[in-house]
Structures are given as structure tokens and as C-alpha cells.
Design a protein that fits this description.
This protein is an alpha+beta fold. The chain is 20% helix and 41% strand. It has 2 domains: 116 residues, Diaminopimelate Epimerase, Chain A, domain 1 (Roll); 123 residues, Roll (Diaminopimelate Epimerase, Chain A, domain 1), CATH 3.10.310. β10 and β11 form a beta hairpin. The mean pLDDT is 96.
């Protein structure tokens, strides 16, 4: 069996920035075990698998360890591959059927905008094990169905975090979003995302985390259109538009590898 595979840097305007995702367009559905093995082989934070359907594509996302319910950067990368390889007409939006419902991607000049569900957090007490694992005292803590969001007092505190990943993996959530207001006027907030329990100690740029960050910072800053910078080592910029119970995430993508899976 031969399957095309692409590696795309998402939320990036140049190679070797943003968040790399592998994208595998398939002609027919594949087995769960095979897809998990491919994701482990690729060893990126997410590998996306696409299967054509009557009105779009079935899209599934895997980390090296587990299948996940929602992934922003691999969705953006998938749309980029479909348009770049003429699997989808250039001017036509892409419809993705996923475990999180229908998601769409459209072109906006050089950028791609993906339409995702908003997943706002509800305030909650800080878990002692979370505070100990992060080694930082939060300003506020919230939680949604996937993640915990922790606001810290400054951008410097976010950048300076050195979490204990072993202890962080024991916190019963998909991942931990850490955020603060940005020191730079061109960005509204900064963030980092840790998901060691899902096999991703730190994700470079996390689209799905902005489904919580958008509503969170809209409530604090009083505006629905925001620009976030994820300050991981690679880093990346996500433009966020909060639209009721939906969030529009915008960014660019660059293909860095085209290959072939042989088994």
C-alpha cells in the first residue's frame, strides 16, 4: 500500500516555524490501529487523516499516543494540502466531518480561516497538583471539557515556565493552557500549551486552545477580534474572531515535505 503524506507548518508564514502537522489523504477509511501507528511513526503533535465524503471530507486527528477530539493546526494544514494538491477547487470552502461536528475552512488572501466551536472555560479552584507541576501561582483558573486554562500575571511568567511534565501528565485533563496579556501592542495575549498525558509535552501552536482563549480574552479585553501569539520555542500567531458559539481561527501554512508511506 502506498499513501501520500505531507508535512505542513501551520500558523506559520515561513518553513520551520509554527506547528508541523502530517497530513495523509486516503482513498478509503483505514483502521484505527494503522492510523495510530502512522502518527507514532511521524512523531509530530498531530497527524491528520482525510477520507472523501459526498459533501466534504472525514477528518481524524492522532497524536503519537491517542486520537483527539479537536485539533486546529492539523485542520488548517489539511485544508492547505487539499487546495495545494487540487483535491479541492481553489475557491471552494472545505467541509470537514469530525468528532467535534462540522468544521469548515475558507481562504482569506494568503491566510486560511477555520470555523471551530467555542469552548469557553468556567472558573474553578486551582488544583494543588497543577500549581505544583507548573511551579507558578495563577491569577485565575478555568476549565472546559478538554483543558484547564491558567492565567499568569505576566508574559515573562508564561515564557519562563519550566513545568514538571511527569507531574503535569497526572492532571486529569487533555492539556493545560497557560496565558497572560502580551507585552507587545501587536498581540493581545500570549500562551503556551502542555499536553504530556496525550504524548505532547509542549505543543508549538495550538489552534484548539484558542477556542477557549478567544472567549476568555474577549471577556477581559472587551473585543471579539484578537491576535494571540503562542510563545513556544518555534512560536506562531493565531488570529481569533469570536462569533457567538463559534470561533474563527486564522493563519497561514507552508508545505515542507511531500512523501509516500509504503506500508
Amino acid at each position: 500500500m502506498s499513501v501520500p503524506v505531507y508535512v505542513v507548518d501551520a500558523f506559520a508564514d515561513r518553513p520551520f516555524a509554527g506547528n508541523p502537522a502530517a497530513v495523509c489523504p486516503l482513498e478509503r477509511p483505514a483502521g484505527d490501529g494503522w492510523m495510530q501507528s502512522v502518527a507514532a511513526e511521524m512523531n509530530l503533535s498531530e497527524t491528520a487523516f482525510l477520507v472523501p465524503e459526498a459533501d466534504g471530507f472525514r477528518l481524524r486527528w492522532y497524536t503519537p499516543a491517542v486520537e483527539v477530539d479537536l485539533c486546529g493546526h492539523a485542520t488548517l494544514a489539511s485544508a492547505h494540502v487539499l487546495w495545494e494538491t487540487d483535491r479541492q477547487p481553489a475557491a471552494t470552502p472545505v467541509r470537514f466531518h469530525t468528532r467535534s461536528g462540522l468544521l469548515t475552512a475558507t481562504r482569506d488572501g494568503d491566510a486560511i480561516v477555520i470555523d471551530f466551536p467555542a469552548v469557553p472555560v468556567e472558573p474553578c479552584p486551582p488544583l494543588p497538583e497543577l500549581v505544583e507541576a507548573l511551579g507558578a501561582e495563577p491569577v485565575a483558573v478555568g476549565r472546559n471539557r478538554m483543558d484547564v486554562l491558567v492565567e499568569l500575571p505576566s508574559e515573562a511568567a508564561v515564557r519562563g515556565l519550566r513545568p514538571d511534565f511527569g507531574r503535569l501528565a497526572a492532571v486529569p485533563v487533555r492539556g493545560v493552557i497557560v496565558t497572560a496579556r502580551s507585552d507587545e501592542s501587536e498581540y493581545d495575549f500570549v500562551s503556551r500549551f502542555f499536553a504530556p498525558a496525550a504524548g505532547v509535552p509542549e505543543d508549538p501552536v495550538t489552534g484548539s486552545a484558542h477556542c477557549a482563549l478567544g472567549p476568555y480574552w474577549m471577556a477581559r479585553l472587551g473585543k471579539a477580534d484578537l491576535v494571540g501569539r503562542q510563545v513556544s520555542r518555534r512560536g506562531g500567531v493565531v488570529r481569533v474572531g469570536v462569533r457567538g458559539d463559534r470561533v474563527h481561527l486564522g493563519g497561514r501554512a507552508v508545505t515542507v515535505l511531500r512523501g509516500e508511506l509504503l506500508s
